[in-house]
Design a protein that fits this description.
The complex is a heterodimer of chains A (541) and B (157).
Chain A (H helix, E strand, L loop, with lengths): L3 E6 L2 H5 L2 H14 L6 E6 L9 E6 L3 E5 L2 H13 L11 H16 L15 H6 L4 H8 L2 H11 L11 H10 L6 E6 L8 H8 L1 H15 L3 E6 L4 H16 L15 E6 L9 H8 L23 E5 H13 L1 H5 L9 E8 L5 E6 L4 H8 L9 E6 L5 E3 L12 H5 L7 E6 L4 H15 L5 H18 L7 H15 L3 H4 L2 H10 L1 H5 L17 H7 L1
Parallel strand pairs in A: 1-2, 5-6, 5-8, 6-7, 9-13
Antiparallel strand pairs in A: 1-3, 3-4, 9-10, 11-12, 11-13
Chain B lengths: L1 H12 L8 H11 L6 H11 L3 H10 L11 E6 L2 H19 L12 E6 L11 E3 L2 E3 L4 H15 L1
Parallel strand pairs in B: 1-2
Antiparallel strand pairs in B: 1-3, 3-4
The chains are: A alpha/beta (541), B alpha+beta (157).
């Protein structure tokens, strides 16, 4: 090991802030000064937050810098690396340092899923192995498949894609179905707006996902697996391809894994732009080379999935939890989170929040902690108006519900959904009608068109909300919207249409006054919607 | 052309399970032609993979990343999802429409730009985000996107 190690985040978000460029520049500087034997420069995943620049950390000093320009890189190099003193101008400022202290605490306390993200070079399998990588697989292969399933069942792990279905149970159904061929699919079609945790997990720690999938394969008796990933996730696809290649080379994939007699093949299949492909049966259809339209359920994938064979479908984050559970045991896993939702959850903090990024906390953490303690509060000193939790198919809540602890039961208990773990912070410059319209436009655009309540319901909701946002709303419109939401929720074919009422009813219920204030008014009460005055136009004519 | 398409299909076949290579193949072929899949190619794919022509068209028109029509040299995609929207996404959409003089789904008369909308790209840490072909741009402002369009116009000349 070299005396100084520099870690640079090169996840997709950081790359857009110039990470690659800074990295190359730093490498040149080190090379020019002939310090190649002293300074190790490593690429790593997200270190959690994006305060408008790339985070660079220097070990063993454990100092975090924020780099925005080439000049900043030079300063850090000259000050910290050459002269051995801190480049104080570029240290993450006090507020941010506090955040890194928190991230550090988190690293010690609750980094289960993100254990390796931002710590290892994702393109080097040996770094993963050095941190107990593939040890869980070795352990699982010495257990009987039923024992593996039992351990996952006992851990209480529930699907992190949003539905929260018990993972062990899903595996058991698949294991018990007799078939000549079974499959394990990873749903990496991360499409829920605001979610980018899976992207950062795959880009920062791809081998944990692979390991989790192989263990699942062994447990249910599947010998083939697919990772279905969004076609737009170029960076993640590349890293995964490389990781799979390395896993084959080292014998963690392919024939007779670790001499156990168990074989498992893993391939990548790309999505091509369809939100609904995140629904598990639509995803299966897509892999089969068809439009991503959901199937009628039952039968469910554990009995009738890909090519009609028993299939396990889990989210990226779910699979990544598996090696941790096998290695440390179900009791250890249950020591995090809440009794009904054990473990941690990776949240994506987005919108008008000071520190955007991903954060891993125990299940049951409150919305307030996520927004203020980890997110640093609302940007530009503005007031918090609402938070959308769980993604576009999630709930809009006002500041009165900030103290709700988030887990898989919080929707049923308090009307606050955890979904895919999005915390979208919205400040007081935004208008509820405009937000509802934007969300419904998204649903209208993404509706696959297969069933009427979803296809027509979302279209009508957009029409009505457009009308309200133009100042032409009618008294009966709110009731109409509620009815549409109810119909879509009850009569839609798949989970997508069924989730329409979640955002629509929550924003109508929690911000009803603001909707009413648009109807029969002269202008948008918040000043966002642009009213079209038909009566005036008529007069001009 | 036929040979090139056959080559892509042969390569894909090596990893084929059953019918699972259509979408990956279409991605490859679309890249080969720039940013669309022309009718001639669709016929070859249909024959070779033994997938009915109607099915290939159904798939091509279902997914937003595919196109059966020639698109501009630069396909500009703007995220319209809520996380970008609350960070000024609406102004970005407006600036792009104005600067390019076209609406979503249209191509500029000089064939340089096609404007499309996209759902969340998972880069919300640096919202608002746009994509040009397969390159992302984060933390954009109306000024930045106008500059970008001007730069691309200059590059194309």
């Amino acid at each position: 090991m070299k005396p100084i190690t520099v870690l640079v985040s090169v996840d997709s978000n950081s790359v857009l802030l110039g990470a690659r460029h800074f990295l190359n520049y730093l490498r040149d500087l080190v090379y020019d000064h002939n310090l190649g034997d002293v300074v190790e420069i490593l690429e790593t995943g997200s270190m959690g937050v994006y305060p408008e620049g790339v985070i660079v950390s220097i070990l063993p000093d454990n100092v975090f810098y924020l780099v925005k320009t080439e000049e900043d890189v030079r300063t850090i190099f000259e000050e910290h690396i050459l002269k051995g003193r801190r480049a104080s101008r570029l240290l993450l400022d006090e507020g941010k340092v506090k955040s890194s202290v928190e991230i550090e605490r988190l690293t010690q306390e609750t980094r289960v899923v993100l254990k390796n993200v931002g710590e290892i070079d994702p393109t080097d399998i040996e770094e993963y192995i050095a941190r107990d990588g593939y040890f869980a697989l070795a352990k699982a292969l010495q257990m009987r498949p039923e024992e593996v399933i039992e351990e996952v069942k006992r851990s209480g792990l529930r699907g992190r894609g949003g539905a929260g279905f018990p993972t062990g149970l899903k595996w058991e159904f698949t294991a018990k179905t007799k078939s000549d061929q079974k499959y394990v699919l990873c749903n990496a079609d991360e499409g829920e707006p605001g979610t980018f945790k899976d992207r950062l997990i795959m880009e920062g720690d791809p081998h944990s996902l692979i390991e989790g999938m192989v263990i699942a394969g062994y447990a249910v008796g599947a010998t083939k697996g697919y990772i279905y990933i969004r076609g737009e996730y170029y960076g993640s696809i590349e890293i995964l391809r490389k990781a799979i290649e390395q896993a084959y080379e080292y014998g963690f994939l392919g024939e007779n894994i670790l001499g156990s007699g168990f074989s498992f093949d893993l391939k990548i299949r790309l999505g091509a732009g369809a939100y609904v492909a995140g629904e598990e049966t639509a995803l299966i259809e897509s892999i089969e080379g068809k439009p991503a339209k959901p199937r009628l359920k039952p039968p469910y994938p554990p009995t009738y999935g890909l090519f009609g064979k028993p299939t396990v479908v889990n989210n990226v984050e779910t699979f990544v939890n598996v090696p941790r559970i096998i290695l440390n045991g179900a009791d250890w896993f249950r020591s995090f989170g809440t009794p009904s939702s054990p473990g941690t959850k990776v949240f994506s903090l987005v919108g008008n929040v000071v520190r955007k990024g991903i954060v891993e906390v125990p299940m049951g953490t409150t919305v307030r902690d996520l927004v203020f303690r980890f997110g640093g509060g609302v940007e530009k000193g503005r007031q918090l108006k609402m938070v959308q939790t769980g993604g576009s198919a999630g709930t809009f809540i006002g500041p009165d519900k900030l103290d709700v602890p988030l887990d898989f039961d919080s929707y049923g208990k308090y009307g606050v959904s955890i979904g895919s773990g999005v915390i979208l912070v919205i400040d007081d410059t935004h208008c509820a009608v405009d937000l509802a319209l934007t969300v419904m436009r998204f649903f209208e655009h993404e509706s696959c068109g297969k069933c009427t309540p979803c296809r027509e319901g979302t279209r009508m909701a957009v029409d009505i909300l457009t009308r309200i946002s133009r100042g032409q709303g009618r008294e009966e419109d709110l009731e109409l919207l509620r009815e549409i939401a109810k119909n879509a929720g009850e009569a839609s074919f798949c989970g997508m249409g069924q989730s329409v009422p979640v955002p629509l009813l929550s924003i109508l219920d929690n911000f009803e006054e603001e909707f009413r204030a648009h109807i029969g008014a002269e202008r948008c009460p918040v000043g966002v919607c642009e009213f079209v005055r038909t009566s005036k136009k008529l007069k001009v004519k | 052309m036929r040979e090139a398409i056959l080559e892509v299909i042969e390569k894909a076949r090596k990893t084929a399970e059953e019918r699972d290579i259509l979408i990956n193949t279409l991605h490859e072929i679309q890249r080969m032609f720039g940013n669309f899949v022309p009718p001639e190619a669709i016929e070859v794919i249909s024959e070779e993979l033994k997938v009915p022509l109607s099915r290939v068209y159904e798939v091509l028109t279902f997914y937003t990343m595919f196109s059966t029509k020639k698109r501009g040299k630069y396909v500009v995609r703007v995220c319209e999802s809520l996380p970008c929207h609350v960070e000024g996404g609406r102004e970005i959409v407006r600036a792009l429409k104005e600067e390019l003089g076209i609406d979503f789904g249209q191509t500029t008369p000089d064939g340089l730009f096609t404007l499309e909308t996209t759902s969340c790209l998972g880069l919300c840490g640096v919202a608002p985000v746009i994509m040009v072909n397969d390159e992302y741009f984060g933390n954009v402002t109306p000024e930045k996107v106008r500059e970008l369009v001007k730069k691309m116009r200059g590059d194309a000349r």
